[in-house]
Amino acid sequence: MAAKDAKKGGWRTLVAGGAAGAIDCCITMPLDTLGTQIQLQGYSGPVTATRAILAAKGVGGLYAGFGSFLIQSSAKSSIRFFGFEALGQMADSFGADRKTHNGFWSLVCGMGAGTVESLSLTAPTDRVKVLAQAQSGIKGGVEMGAMELIREKGIMTLYVGGLATTLRQSTSVATRFFCFNKIKTGMCDSLGYDVKAAPVWLSFSAGGIGGAVSVGLNNPIDIAKSKIQAGHSTSIVGSIKDVIVKEGPFALSAGLSARMPRLFLSQAIQFSLVDYFTKLLMEY
């Protein structure tokens, strides 16, 4: 049975994850831009940030850095779901009892998948995206692509903020998979569904809640990441201290008004579509 289940994953998980990530990007990117702008420019909320972006760059400003974000969203979703699956299978091969300790292994495999995702893709593409988004509310701001950055500052410039990105991503992915598995299983038990045949709306709800929880837990490190990648700071601790000293501790929640609904919707889309697409691909 294990071999049969593994056969149903593999490339199917990669394809399902990539498709889900691309769809997610097209729908939720404006909220990501707003969250970054609020963190970097200190806007009071999404409405103020939206007005500033529209005045400076028009509707296109809400999609600043879209190319990088599309590649990032699609590829990292593939890597994340495939990595989680592969790490789970690796744990099984070593005799781990994942069913008995489901929550623990969801956290471990999620953290591993998030780390791989960040180092291989998210850190460099996020650097390009954040630099572009930082210019979206500024008239005359020039958006630089990855190749321009490399020519000007060398390839390692793409990994500015890499540690902060990895810390954010590993903890976020671990939290999302943990919440998703616990919430989906609990809802299936309560409503009488088989977990493997659960309706899409149930995966949508569980994925969305996991995304929202992960944002609430690691928003301070996301603020530090954005400031480092935009060139406003050089260290995680320094960024957080600077925010607290200048704006007070509540400023560490900056961007949540845009990030929380975005990550709820983003992860709801990804988890439900990965489930849906994987089921469709099981015929091949």
Task: Explain the overall architecture.
With 284 residues, this protein is mostly helical. The chain has one domain (2-281): Mitochondrial carrier fold (Alpha/alpha barrel). The protein is 76% helix and 0% strand. The chain contains ten helices and no strands. The protein has helices at residues 2-7, 11-41, 46-57, 66-93, 102-134, 146-153, 162-191, 200-229, 236-247, 256-281. α7 runs antiparallel to α8 (200-229). The radius of gyration is 19 Å and the shape is globular. The relative contact order is 0.15.
Summary tags:
284 residues, mainly alpha, Mitochondrial carrier fold, 10 helices
Shape: globular
**In DSSP terms, counting alpha (H) and pi (I) runs of 4 or more, how many helices?**
10
The overall strand count is: 0
Query: Mind telling me the CATH superfamily name?
Result: Mitochondrial carrier domain
Count of all domains: 1
Q: Specify the helix fraction band.
A: over 70%
What low-confidence regions span 5 or more consecutive residues with pLDDT below 50? 1-6
Percent of residues in β-strands: under 5%
Supply the helix-strand structural class: mainly alpha
Specify the CATH class: Mainly Alpha
Would you identify the CATH architecture? Alpha/alpha barrel
Q: Mean pLDDT, as a whole number?
A: 88
* Radius of gyration computed on alpha carbons: 19 Å
Biggest sheet details: none
**What is the H/E string?**
HHHHHHHHHH
